[in-house]
Amino acid sequence: MSVAVAAGRQAWRQLARNTGTSAAIRRTIFSLPKSQHSPFRPAFNTTSKALPRFSQPQYRSYSSGGSSGGGTQVKFWPFVMVLAAGSAGWVLLINRQKTMPPNPQATTTITKPTPAFSPAHVTVLFVLGGPGAGKGTQCANLVSDFKFHHLSAGDLLRAEQERPGSQYGQLIKDCIKDGAIVPMEVTVALLENAMADAIARSGSRKARFLIDGFPRKMDQAFEFEKVVCPAKLVLFFDCPEEVMEGRLLERGKTSGRADDNAESIRKRFRTFIETSMPVVEYYDKEGKVVKVDATPKPTEVYEDVKRKLLEKLGENF
Ligand code: UDP
Ligand code: MG
Question: Is residue 16 domain-resident?
Fold first, then answer.
């Protein structure tokens, strides 16, 4: 189908050139966001107003050729067929796109610069560690001391799951219960929106973010850094599984979280080892990881966090 679409697009371009259509009209047809592309737009317009200016010369040349001999006819019908096939392909493609979930990447490349935030203004720290390592607790400390905005990917997903009318609610629910990772487009879009909101609310384009529990997979890391903002470093809370398990089971008594139970915890540990640890290792090779032992009590861990962060970033980061 893509060949037919390309052929159709080419044919429209050819038609536009032949008929002397202005550059402005061609721009209207070909540089709209994908969802608005319509090969039929000029045809509809021309039947009412724009026809004389847009396609009269072409029409004259075809009709005179048709009546006066086979030469032009031979060129005309293949052209019409290619145009028809291409247009049909294009319409099919557009209809299919309408039924697909939004692709934030496609939208981003067309409608705005990439990445959305510049690291010159926005400082992003990824906060990683196994489930129950204490990321949320330590992030709260950093927020009060360093004026970070704290965005927990898990919290944003849970909020989206509860949002009435969300088309991702059930998907998120299933992933969380299974300790699986929600498709990155959803999480990256939620994070980007939350960052934009926080920046808008603060009234300053300078901002610091703790992105907690993200990226949990390499594709998320690449996507986020490409379309949202490059990260300055990764704060990694290292904690043995037995310790984390004890904390999660304790938290499960009151958290109400669907994944703070023995079976989900086992799955979350597996996902963490198999999928999320490679992210930590990747950033470690880049020299971007600040690793903290998360076994001691929270106040001790925080002393270590603060000291190591300031060592790495300097007092005025
Ligand atoms: N999750 C996800 N992508 C993310 C972050 C979280 O799919 O980038 C899902 C995943 O199923 C995970 C759950 O959300 O197990 C809970 O994440 P959260 O960060 O709240 O867990 P924590 O690490 O704090 O225990
Ligand atoms: Mg958490």
Answer: yes
Give the separation between CA 30 and CA 36, rounded to whole angstroms.
10
Which of 18-27, 79-88, 213-222 ranks highest by mean pLDDT? 213-222
**Domain shared by 168 and 289, yes or no:** yes
Q: Domains in the chain: how many in total?
A: 2
Domain range for 3 is: 1-62
* Domain final residue pick, 42, 62, 82: 62
- Identify whether residues 271 and 133 lie together within a single domain: yes
Which comes out higher in pLDDT, residue 24 or 301?
301
Q: Which residue has the higher pLDDT, 10 or 64?
A: 10
What pLDDT digit, counting tens, does each position of 116-127 carry? 999 999 999 999
Can you give the CATH number for the domain in which 282 is found? 3.40.50.300
Interior CA angle at 197 toward 196 and 200, to 5°?
Answer: 85
Question: Residue 6's closest CA among 103, 110, 96, 82?
Answer: 82
| d(C-alpha 124, C-alpha 146), whole Å | 13
Is residue 3 a known part of a binding site? no
Q: Best mutation site among 190, 217, 250, 259 for ligand 1, i.e. most ligand atoms within 8 A of its Cβ?
A: 259
> Which of the four pLDDT bands, split at 50, 70 and 90, describes residue 61?
very low
Pocket test for ligand 1, best of 138, 158, 176 (most atoms within 8 A of CB): 176
